[in-house]
Write a sequence for this structure.
């Protein structure tokens, strides 16, 4: 962005050290500009926390630019992958805590609200979890014991340090019925109750959440409300619900998002947007959910912005984000946080899902970490709310 400034400065300076002085000035200019960039966490202070899902390069600070951006912009973090079962507990009895430890340490150093993601899911969970020694499906008692040990070990390790856990992820089908996962088939429908109880036992202070996508759709919303009510009626220690928010340019509508937040809020639960991104690319198939196992082949018509995002789409994305944050702000007090799924467009899973190798633009920061028009639009929404 400051190429012109650098060019002008280096031209005015004697040749020998011009380049390095120019670079120093460039760095000063760009860090000053960054320091002046408004901060999402500050503009929404008092309304809700704002966060992002982080990859290891960011929380180990190997990606120094990414880490600096995160510290400046966010006050809550979620690990993109390192606490999923296949990463943290790849083999029976063998845990891999090096990266999760560094994730938690990053959050603590920066005084952030630290989320754990996720304890029970049907994806990114190794096959051995659901099998006995001979490769045949494990029985209920075995799987319950494995679940208990996993939760005790992982949640217990970060007791008092990870503030909230996505305990169960994506337990519902699109029609709102319980998804036919190995968890359900082997344990039965009380697996959710058990998971929340085990997590509460391991860290009684931690907030515990149910997290899913497409919760704005009528059938799934209805199913989720029924499920959550049932859990509450059984005295299950559940504190909140995460609406993932893997959305598109024109779906779901702001009204649908508003209705979902309102409905969950009425249950007395904390509501969170947990995985926000807006896919700007053409649909590969008529499906708007976020099932990570789906895939489609790369074709040029599915990747129209490989060379850059046209201004009109950039502006439409800004509008889309402004609309969504307008809805979020109406729910201050109920909405606890808004977490983006990744930080910059280059980090996003949407470059590879459901079609591998596309160029997507779903977030507020571009591939070089610069704020996009969508960022400015979101900041404006916050400012206009405070001046009203
Ligand atoms: C789901 C999961 C996340 C992540 C995203 C896509 O929403 O909850 O952990 O895998 O899909 O990256």
């Amino acid at each position: 962005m400051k190429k012109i400034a650098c060019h002008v400065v280096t031209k005015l300076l004697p040749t020998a050290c011009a380049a390095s002085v120019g670079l120093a000035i460039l760095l000063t200019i760009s860090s000053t500009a960054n320091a002046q960039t408004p901060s999402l966490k500050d503009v929404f202070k008092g309304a809700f926390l704002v966060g992002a899902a982080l990859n290891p390069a960011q929380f180990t600070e190997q990606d120094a630019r990414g880490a600096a951006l995160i510290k400046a912009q966010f006050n809550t973090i979620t690990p993109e992958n390192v606490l999923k079962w296949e990463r943290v507990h790849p083999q029976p009895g063998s845990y891999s805590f090096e990266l999760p430890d560094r994730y938690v340490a990053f959050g603590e150093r920066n005084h952030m609200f630290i989320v754990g993601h996720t304890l029970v899911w049907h994806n990114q969970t190794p096959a051995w979890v659901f099998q006995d020694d001979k490769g045949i499906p494990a029985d209920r008692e075995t799987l319950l014991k494995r679940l208990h040990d996993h939760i005790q070990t992982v949640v217990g390790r970060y007791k008092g340090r990870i503030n909230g856990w996505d305990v169960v992820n994506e337990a519902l089908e699109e029609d709102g019925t319980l998804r036919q996962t190995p968890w359900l088939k082997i344990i039965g429908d009380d697996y959710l109750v058990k998971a929340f109880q085990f997590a509460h036992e391991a860290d009684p202070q931690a907030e515990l959440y149910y997290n899913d996508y497409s919760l704005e759709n009528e059938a799934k919303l209805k199913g989720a409300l029924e499920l959550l009510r049932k859990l509450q009626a059984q005295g299950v220690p559940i504190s909140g619900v995460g609406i993932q928010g893997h959305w598109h340019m024109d779906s779901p509508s702001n009204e649908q998002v508003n209705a979902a937040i309102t409905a969950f809020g009425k249950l007395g639960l904390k509501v969170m947007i947990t995985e926000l991104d807006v896919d700007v690319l053409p649909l590969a198939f008529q499906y708007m959910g976020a099932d990570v196992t789906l895939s489609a082949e790369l074709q040029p018509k599915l990747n129209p912005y490989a060379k850059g995002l046209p201004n009109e789409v950039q502006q439409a994305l800004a509008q889309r984000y402004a609309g969504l944050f307008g809805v979020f702000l109406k729910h201050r007090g109920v909405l606890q946080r808004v977490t983006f799924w990744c930080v910059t467009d280059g980090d996003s899973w949407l470059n590879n899902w459901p079609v591998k190798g596309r160029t997507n633009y779903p977030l507020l920061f571009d591939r070089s970490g610069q704020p996009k028009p969508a960022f400015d639009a979101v900041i404006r929404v916050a400012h206009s709310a405070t001046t009203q």
Notes: Residues 117, 169, 213, 244, 275, 290, 292, 349 surround alpha-D-galactopyranose (CB under 6 Å). The CA atoms of residues 197 and 291 lie 27 Å apart.
